[in-house]
Every structure is written in C-alpha cells, then in structure tokens.
Design goal:
By secondary structure, the chain is of the alpha/beta class. The protein is 28% helix and 27% strand. The strands form three sheets. Strands 1, 2, 8, 9, 10, 11, 17 and 18 form an eight-stranded mixed beta sheet that branches. The N and C termini lie far apart (43 Å).
C-alpha cells in the first residue's frame, strides 16, 4: 500500500486496522538471479536499485536475523559529504543528493534532517588544511563554509573554544549535511525492494559459499542451499568471515565502535559537531537525547559490545569540548562491528571470482554512504563493471598502490 496523508487519516478513523506489513517475509526459493548477503542498509539499498535502475527483481536479500539489528541500527545517524580526495568526494556528494530525495523515492519518511555538520580544528595548520578541503569540496560542487573561533561559538552555544584542553581555532561547516533515522532507512529500503518483487529473507544465515571452479554456484544457509547466478556480499564487520567461505583473504580488519545516548534535553545542539583530535562526535536526536561516540575500542572483535577504557575516553573527550556534558546521565550504549579497510576507504566492485561482488570496508562511513553504495553496487552487479563513482574503490588498490587515504594515516586500519 502507498503511504499518504489521506491514508494516515483513513487508518486513524478506522482504528489502524488496515495497515499491511511493510515488506513480505517469504520462504527462500531454490534459486535466484542475484543473492545479496546482508540485510542492512547497503544490502537493501542494492536490492532496491537493482529493481528500480536495472529491472532485476529475481533477487533475494539474506539476513541472519531480523532486518535492522546489524550496523544499520547501531550507528550515530550522521550524513555528510565533506571529503577532499577525488575518489571520495564525488561518491559521497552523489549520496547526499540521493538522501535529499530519499523519502520521496521510497515513499517512506527516513527523517533526513539537514541540520549541518561542523568539523572543528585546533591549530593554524589544521585550519589551513580545512580551508584546502573546503575549497576541494566547492570545486566538486558541494557546499562548505570555513568558520573562525567566533563563528563556531556563535553556532554552538556552550562550546569551550579558548580555555579547554583543545582550544578551537575554527571549523568547516557543511550546512546540507545532517542526520537521518537509521531504522527508517532500513525499513524504507526493505519495503521498496519487497514491493518491487525482491525477496527479503530473514533468519537465514549463510554458513558456506559453494564454488564450481572460479564461479559461485550458491550459498549454504540455515534454511538450506540456495543457488544463484551472481552473489553480492554486503555484511559489514563479517566481511572477512564470508570472504573466507569463498576462498578470499581480504584487506579488512573488524573492530568495535561504541556509541552512547543521553537522557532527553531541550534543544542544545543545532547540528552535528565533531573534532578529530579527540575523535569525538555528537548530535541531538529528535527525541532530545544526545547521541555521541568516539574512537575504536582498539582490538579486533566480532562482538557487538565495547569495553570500559573507551567509555572513559569518549566521556573525557566530550567533557573537554562541552564542559556541561558531565551533568547528563547516559541511558544506553551499544557497539557496532566496523569493517576497517587498510586505507580507510570502502571497497565496492568485482573480485577475482567471476560472479562474486564485494561491498565492504566502510570503516566509520557506512551509514551516510547507504544510497550511493546501493546505487553503485547495483550497477556493478547488473553490468559486471564498476560505476564511474565507485571505480576508484577497487579491491586490488592495496596491491597496485592506488590508495585513497583521506586521513593520511597509512595502512593502519585502527587509525582511520
């Protein structure tokens, strides 16, 4: 059923008895043209754009649990396109444009709020670097605004710019950036893909990948063998495990990233604020809670939970920036498993196996890339070759030296 204001009023008048399930929950068929492993944002977006852009509907999305319990429901909802390198910025700029029309495209309110993202800097050298990045963003068609310390203080009341542990020299603001509702993004893509004929198969864990020579024949699952002509992997922190099943050793490490939510407050933050020297980021949800996080926990893990030293680190970093933060109570925290690539940029493309395609290595940037990731991955699967926007995200770039190291940290996954 199509959602509308009239439909909402109609259901309210008849006691909400006419709502249909948002997506079908079918049993898996014996075979599909395309199987996407991973029912998170990237996998569901890929299925949607396979149907919408390429007319491929004999597609199954296999998810080991219910939709929305992976990283797509465990992030801090930030959407931005403030990169400086040619391989990154056009891709994320396209993603931001897709975000701006996503609710209309999916007929589902993803609650995209363009409240702005402000990245803080602390030294004159870093201020100059932000100016270069802002200029690169503008040259590639994105908006960017360089603020001095007074501009930052006027935008974010209560921020410590002069006497704190890390004095603020200025910041780079992207006003078109903002936040979206993570659950709504997963639900919206699942609903749209299902309406187009895609099978969303929940509680179907992949336990093996079956090959015949250099081609994948299908996957072994907890619900039996399912054959396919093309297989796409979009499983975030479990990429290395699935790669091993196919005989691929991938340049990816899995790390835990924690996030936190405070009690609800009246509006105190106008947008998203981040600063790299403490690797701290914070925004305020529509419910009033402050959503914030920091750096990786610092060890390889597949567990969706964190450790106490990083809790202390995040709270200290937040307090250095916002001295009033310790007055709040933290209501809950969670952990997501990050698939960290060697250079901090994603991998979207073909693999050495003929009909196996990979979408991985998202590090911290997976949520904001969801629309463009699905768009480009669908193109790659449908045509067998990368879209121009993801051509630089090739798997073998770590071997050829064509790295996209936005953080200039070298081949250190834990530092990106």
């Amino acid at each position: 059923m199509r959602y509308s204001a009239f439909g909402l009023l109609q259901e309210a008048l008849r006691g909400n008895r006419g709502w249909a399930p948002a997506w079908r929950d079918p049993a898996p068929k014996d075979r599909y043209d395309v199987i996407i492993v991973g029912g998170g944002g990237h996998g569901l977006a890929t299925a949607h754009y396979l149907a919408k852009n390429h007319g491929l509907t004999d597609v199954a999305v296999l998810e080991k649990g219910p939709i929305g319990l992976g990283n797509v429901g465990r992030n801090t909802t930030i959407v931005r396109a403030n990169y400086g390198l040619p391989g990154n910025e056009p891709f994320y700029a396209h993603s931001l444009k897709l975000w701006e029309g996503l609710s209309r495209d999916l007929n589902f309110n993803v609650m995209f709020s363009q409240r702005g993202v402000l990245n803080l800097c602390h030294t004159p050298a870093q201020y100059d670097q932000f100016a270069r990045r802002g200029n690169a963003m503008r040259l590639m068609g994105e908006d960017a605004e360089l603020l001095d310390a007074d501009g930052v203080k006027a935008l974010v009341p209560g921020i410590e710019t002069e006497d704190g542990r890390f004095p603020v020299a200025g910041g780079l603001l992207q006003r078109r950036a903002g936040t979206a509702r993570h659950d709504a993004v997963a639900w919206g893509y699942a609903r749209a893909a299902s309406a187009a004929g895609v099978d969303i198969v929940q509680h179907c864990e992949v336990t093996g990948i079956v090959r015949e020579g250099n081609r994948v024949k299908g996957v072994e699952t907890t619900r039996g063998f399912i054959g396919c002509d093309r297989l796409g992997l979009a499983v975030a922190g479990n990429t290395s495990r699935l790669g091993d099943m196919a005989g691929l050793r991938l340049p990816i490490e899995s790390h835990v990233l924690q996030a936190f939510v405070s009690e609800g407050l009246k509006p105190v933050l106008p947008g998203v604020v981040t600063y790299g020297i403490g690797h701290f980021y914070i925004s305020q949800s529509d419910k009033g809670g402050l959503v914030f996080g920091g750096d990786l926990d610092g060890y390889n893990s597949y567990a969706q939970r964190g450790n106490l030293p990083l809790v202390e680190h995040v709270m200290a970093a937040g307090t250095a920036l916002l001295p009033w933060l310790p007055r709040l109570r933290v209501l809950r925290s969670w952990g997501g498993v990050m698939d960290m690539s060697m250079d901090g940029s994603p991998i979207i493309g073909t693999t050495p196996i003929d009909n196996l395609y990979l979408n991985a290595g998202w590090c911290y940037g997976g949520f904001k890339a969801t629309p463009a990731s699905g768009w480009c991955f669908a193109h790659t699967i449908a045509t067998g070759s990368p879209h121009p926007l993801n051509a630089a995200f090739r798997l073998d770039r770590t071997m050829t030296g064509h790295l996209i190291d936005e953080e200039q940290a070298g081949p250190q996954p834990n530092l990106h």
